[in-house]
Write a structure and sequence with these properties.
four-stranded parallel beta sheet; 724 residues; extended
Length: 724
């Protein structure tokens, strides 16, 4: 204790701090700057969900809806504090964006509105509550779609999830969790998308799996094809699980419904068709050119096929566009009238036409004058010859007419950048070369779907590849006994007796033939896809065989058929037998007196030639094996030397690469091994038995021999049944 006295406070040390004489810069360099709270670190970047709810003053349910619609998701910090493990964090910038969202005010208004409705309901004022129901605040998600997808290509890139969810809701039953209006809306969106894909020939790949039917379509935008893939569930009775929160799924559907509306409006507008498609008027006030018998109940009709109903409505809209209702046709007509020359103006009708054209040109000049002034800078860079050529193209009566600039003219001529166009006869013409090639696959083919065949995806694929479809139903465009049917799709173990009265000119196939032919873009033989036959393997079109290192046998067969390389065994036998007969015929022409001498000479020459050939082949084989072995040893030595010269990091990376390559090769070797085993079991002997059947017979024979030997000892290998 020293000189310290009990009860007195300890004196302060007279020693000064080590940094007391240092300057401010020296203190910062030595000790660092003191951080203020909420200005750096985890607190300045992320914020917990509880604080977010307190800051925004909304409930957890509304916050989830707002995050889904806005596209905000939780973040996971790299170094989360130990005392905050399991907590949900959001980025502070996302929270600031949510605070300025107009939907937040709408949610608050709706919450205040519901308080008024509940107050009226608690007071037993039901009429007052019903009166307030139409006054509920409403909102739209259009600004969110434009905000999240500034370009059309961005919207197409995120269309996969939207289509999957829409097709899922289209198959779900309407019960307490899902209302019937949502199911009808989903069916209408899915059918509108399918109608566009079938008309433009956009479907490129399809595959049937346990989860559903995978489909992929190439959508043309800005001269590029954007692939869009989605899954269509199987048409079975869906059982809704209890553990799924449908409120979250309905929020996603609310946003995807608006997104698909934007995308379909853009795609249909490129074809010159107004979206949404016309519906049948419910009352007598409105009139429509669409028959109620060809439309689905979602469009106000009585048809049973949603896709066919939307397709018929789209066809009518395209026919209306062919009559001059599209914007592109209007611009093209104006351009043609601008370029037209008025010859032979003696008749009165020609004079009227010239006046109409002159008035139209005057309006067009007034419209284009401002654009020409803006493009003067572009025209100054052009050559004088091009200006003269442009002036020659415009032959008009008025000398003071302002010509349309060449760049603008080219843009207007190329205004129709859609996937389809309409010819002079009013028929739909696909403009994409790849789509034209696909659309010719099922051209002049008519398919009829039996009632047990799922109609949704098959109808879409057949129409997209240029075929015609009919089905068993009242609204089918093709009857079952129509002689124009080329393929009858049946999914039964055997044909019905009633099919015997149908025309014999059709082929009975299973549904897989349609998908395989579409994936290979080649009409496959129908023998393996007959009714009751064992189907060949259904190959996925998304597997790259070159990267996998293994090509399935069935794909090799199809490639040989496509290239014309496959020859029947009978043809090969006929060629060999013909050569043998020719040799025998030449030998028969030798004179009879010289038979013995000629035979001996021929045998001796043949023996000597065979020995020489065999010795030469053996020498070549030995030399080839030695060369291969020498090359392998040189390669191994070079690889070991290069590995020894590597650094430790490079050697470790090289080892991982070789390990991955070895694993991939092991999978390929395993596939080849299984393939050899399957082929060996299917090979038949002279007796007509397969190897598998011979193995079973051999095992049974061995079993009987063992039983006979065991019986000689007085026992039995057969199990005795116990009586209870």
């Amino acid at each position: 204790m020293g000189n310290r006295i009990k009860g007195r406070t300890k004196k302060k040390s007279i020693k000064a701090a080590i940094h007391s004489g240092s300057s401010q810069q020296q203190k910062l360099s030595r000790m660092g700057k003191v951080r203020k709270r909420h200005h750096a670190g985890l607190d300045a970047t992320f914020i917990g969900r509880a604080k977010v709810l307190k800051k925004l003053q909304i409930s957890l349910r509304d916050f989830r809806r707002l995050c889904i619609l806005k596209g905000v998701y939780p973040r996971q910090p790299k170094k989360a504090p130990k005392n905050k493990k399991g907590q949900v964090f959001y980025h502070i910038k996302d929270v600031k964006a949510l605070a300025h969202e107009p939907l937040l005010d709408k949610f608050r208004e709706f919450r205040a509105f519901m308080k008024k409705v509940r107050r009226s309901a608690n007071r037993h004022e039901k009429d007052e509550a019903r009166r307030k129901e139409p006054l509920a605040p409403k909102y739209t998600l259009h600004h969110l779609v434009r905000e999240r997808y500034p370009r059309f290509a961005d919207a197409l890139g995120d269309l996969d999830d939207a289509l999957c969810l829409v097709h899922l809701f289209a198959c779900l039953p309407s019960d307490g969790k899902i209302k019937s209006g949502i199911t009808r809306k989903a069916q209408q969106l899915a059918a509108s998308w399918g109608a566009y894909c079938s008309v433009t020939g956009s479907v490129t790949k399809s595959f049937i799996s346990v989860k559903g039917v995978y489909l992929e379509a190439d959508i043309m935008t800005s001269g590029q094809a954007v692939p869009v893939r989605w899954v269509t569930p199987h048409n079975f009775t869906q059982h809704i699980p209890e553990g799924v929160d449908f409120r979250v799924m309905l929020t996603f559907f609310e946003f995807y419904e608006t997104l698909l509306g934007f995308v379909l409006f853009k795609l249909y507008g490129e074809m010159g068709v107004r979206y949404p498609l016309p519906t049948v008027a419910s009352g007598g006030g409105g009139e429509s050119n669409v028959s109620s018998a060809t439309l689905h109940p979602t469009l106000g009709g009585k048809a049973t096929s949603v896709l066919a109903a939307n397709l018929s409505a789209l066809q009518l809209a395209l026919n209306d566009a062919a009559k001059g209702n599209s914007a592109a046709d209007a611009v093209k007509d104006a351009m043609q009238s601008n370029d037209g020359n008025n010859d032979d103006g003696n008749d009165a009708s020609d004079e009227v036409n010239r006046k109409a054209v002159r008035a139209q040109k005057k309006k067009q000049r007034e419209l284009m004058q401002s654009i020409d002034e803006a493009l003067k800078g572009v025209e100054e860079d052009g050559d004088d010859n091009e200006d003269d050529d442009d002036d020659d193209d415009f032959v008009d009566e008025d000398e003071d007419q302002v010509p349309i600039a060449a760049p603008l003219r080219e843009a207007l001529e190329a205004i129709d950048d859609s996937a389809t166009s309409i010819n002079e006869n009013g028929n739909i013409v696909i403009t994409s070369p790849d789509a034209q090639k696909r659309h010719q696959l099922f051209h002049n083919m008519t398919f009829f779907l039996s009632r047990e065949v799922p109609r949704g995806y098959l109808e879409l694929i057949i129409l997209s590849y240029g075929g015609k479809v009919g089905w068993e139903g009242q609204d089918s465009p093709i009857l079952m006994d129509d002689s124009s049917i080329t393929h009858h799709v049946v999914d039964r173990p055997k044909l019905l007796p009633s099919y015997g009265a149908l025309p014999k000119s059709r082929e009975y196939i299973q549904p897989q033939w349609v998908l395989d032919s579409a994936n290979f873009n080649f009409i496959l033989p129908v023998q393996k896809y007959g009714v009751g036959h064992e189907l060949p393997p259904h190959l996925s079109p998304w597997v790259n065989d070159n990267e996998e290192g293994y090509v399935p046998k069935y794909k090799e067969e199809i490639e040989k058929i496509r290239n014309g390389e496959m020859l029947d065994e009978n043809e090969a036998d006929n060629v060999d037998s013909g050569a043998v007969k020719a040799i025998i015929k030449d030998s028969d022409e030798v004179p009879e007196g010289d038979d013995s001498a000629s035979d001996k000479d021929a045998e001796s020459i043949a023996d000597e030639s065979e020995e020489d050939v065999e010795s030469e082949e053996e020498d070549d084989a030995v030399a080839e094996r030695k060369a291969i072995k020498k090359k392998q040893t040189e390669d191994e030595e070079a690889a070991e030397l290069a590995k020894a010269l590597m650094s430790k990091k490079a050697a470790r990376l090289y080892g991982r690469m070789q390990h991955g390559i070895a694993q991939k090769q092991a999978k390929v070797d395993n596939l080849h091994k299984k393939r050899r085993e399957i082929e060996s079991t299917r090979e038949k002997t002279k007796d007509g038995k397969t190897q598998l059947k011979l193995k079973v017979e051999r095992l049974k024979k061995e079993r009987r021999e063992k039983e006979d030997k065991y019986k000689e000892t007085g026992g039995s290998m057969k199990k005795k049944r116990r009586h209870t």
